Amino acid sequence: MSTLYDIELTTIDGKTTSLKEYSGKALLLVNVASKCGFTKQYTGLEALYQEYKDRGLVVFGFPANDFAGQEPGTNEEIAAFCSTEYPVTFPIFAKLTVNGPEQHPIYTALTAAMPQHDADSAGLRGGLDSYLASQGLPLSPALPAVLWNFEKFVVARDGSAVARYASDVEPSDPRLIEAIEKALL
After folding, report:
1. What global pTM score does this model have?
2. What is the predicted pLDDT for the residue at 120?
3. For residue 113, which of 75, 106, 160, 163 sits 20 to 30 Å off, Cα-Cα?
4. Where is the active site (predicted)?
5. In what order do the strands lie in the sheet with 152-155?
6. Distance of alpha carbon 136 from alpha carbon 57, whole angstroms
C-alpha cells in the first residue's frame, strides 16, 4: 500500500525525491506563498522547526500559486525569497498545485486523510470570500479542498495524518503545538 512517504516530489532545486528519508518523524506540511497576508508565518514555522527538529519534527514548505496568484515566482525566485526575506532552514519543495484537476498527489492524500479542519474560523472564510469577490475571483473552495495559503497538515511518526489547521492558525497556536506534541509521541 502506498503511503505519503512513497509519493514522488521535486525539491526546490529540481531533484526528484520523496519523504522516505523522513519516515518515523513527525511532519508539518504547509502550502506556502510569498505574496500572501499569511507569509509572515514563515518566521513562526522556522521557529517551530528549530524548537522541535531535535525531537523529530520536520517542517515542509510546498509553494503553490492556487490562491489569487500569490506565489507567482519561479522555483529559483522562491528559493531566493526563502533564503533572504524569511530565511528558513526547513525543506522547501518545487511549486505544485494543491487543489483542482492538477492537484499534486501529496495534497490528494492529505485532503483525503483529513477532509476537515481542526480549526477553521467562519471569519477566515468570510474574509477570504469578500476579498476574492472584490478581485472578481472565484470564492474559496469547499472542503476537503485546501482553503488558502499556509494551511497546515500534521502527520504522526507512523505516517498518518492526524490534524489539519486553516491558514489563520498561527504556528505558535496552542492547538497546533498540542497536535505536534502528540505526533511526536
Report:
1. 0.93
2. 60
3. 75
4. 36
5. 57-63, 26-32, 152-155, 161-165
6. 39
- Residue 164, beta-bridge partner list: 153
Q: Give the long-range contacts of residues 175-178, CB within 8 A, separation 24 or more.
A: 175/118, 175/119, 176/152
CATH number, domain of 22, equals 3.40.30.10
Q: Which residues participate in catalysis according to the annotation?
A: 36
Q: Quick check: is 176 in a domain?
A: yes
Residue-wise pLDDT for 94-125, tens only, equals 999 999 999 999 999 999 999 988 766 667 88
Residue 185 domain-assigned (yes or no): no
Give the domain extent around 151. Answer: 4-180
- Degrees to nearest 5, angle at CA 119 with 117 and 121: 110
**Three-state SS sequence of 91-132:** CEECCECCCCCCCCHHHHHHHHHCCCCCECCHHHHHHHHHHH
48: cell is 517551530
Domain annotation covers residue 73:
yes
Q: What is the total count of domains within the chain?
A: 1
